[in-house]
Amino acid sequence: MKTDTINGETVPAIGMGSWHLGQGRHSESEEIEALRTGISMGLRVIDTAEMYGSGKSETLIGKALTGYRDKVYLVSKVYPWHANRLMMERACNASLKRLNTDTLDLYLLHWRLGSMLSEAVSGFEKLKQQGKIKAWGVSNFDVDDMEDLFDVDGGNQCVTNQVFYNPASRGIEFDLIPWCDQHNISMMAYSPLGGEGTSLLRHPFITQLAAKYQTGPSSVLLAWATRNGKMIAIPESGEAAHIRENAEALSLVIQPDDLKAMDKVFPPPSSKVALETR
């Protein structure tokens, strides 16, 4: 099984996202079954945010984790306008209540807004001291944002940066992945299957590889994203069948010749590319 490390803890390299969960796309029972199926197959990292469905995603996950909390590495994210000395603890408490847990394994600043990094860091460290979170990180931070963060007192306590990453969006390979690797920051890929409106799952080369490896397109894309042991991928699905296909990526290794072919179809960056976000 492919693994990676967050804050010294070994976790599977494939987890589960939740951007649209709890919002009526599937029935509540279907989505709970999907999450529990993923947990049973080793997809131990579950990622959510207070933004997703204005808390509905967290609430759905809280129900799914009844009796399963100790099997999961649970991640949530705080709005940037809540990441200050007045509102951060309240926002965290609300997420904990919706998730029906006492502690988050990882709490992320969802994106950067303005220059309040010092208050965000102080808030994260206070939550750590209170035992409400075990570690903290950021999301949607480019190299300059990470450098600004590390200039803040305590900013080097950041353990993770979660960013948009898939074969069609490889800009972070030029400078952000090397920077995070150098500073021992784990990385998480959201929308590793391409995100809303993408055609990656139907791309002829991806479907050709899926047929070769006798698996599904999502498994190929996830195996690619986690190929170097430096990325945790968190695809979202509310269907158990899709979760099972995603889980196949934990044991799928794409051969070097096929990785070279991927580079021809989806070229890596040769210069700085602005960070993409969704």
Shape: globular
Q: What's the number of helices?
A: 10
CATH class value: Alpha Beta
Unreliable runs, pLDDT <50, ≥5 residues?
Answer: none
The CATH homologous superfamily corresponds to NADP-dependent oxidoreductase domain
- Tell me the fraction of residues in β-strands, as a range: 5-15%
DSSP strand tally: 9
CATH architecture descriptor: Alpha-Beta Barrel
Compressed to H and E, one letter per element, the order equals EEHEHEHEHEHEHEHHEHH
Q: How many domain regions?
A: 1
**SS content category:** alpha/beta
Helix percentage range: 25-40%
Main beta sheet: 7 strands, parallel
Q: Going across the biggest sheet, name each strand in turn.
A: 3-4-5-6-7-8-9
Overall radius of gyration:
18 Å
End-to-end separation: 29 Å
Instruction: Round the mean pLDDT to the nearest integer and report it.
Output: 95
CATH topology tier name: TIM Barrel
Topology:
Elements: E1 3-6, E2 9-12, H1 28-40, E3 45-47, H2 56-64, E4 73-78, H3 88-99, E5 106-109, H4 117-129, E6 136-139, H5 143-151, E7 160-164, H6 176-182, E8 186-190, H7 204-212, H8 217-225, E9 232-233, H9 240-247, H10 256-265
Parallel strand pairs: 3-4, 4-5, 5-6, 6-7, 7-8, 8-9
Antiparallel strand pairs: 1-2
Helix pairs in contact: 1-2, 1-9, 2-3, 7-8, 8-9
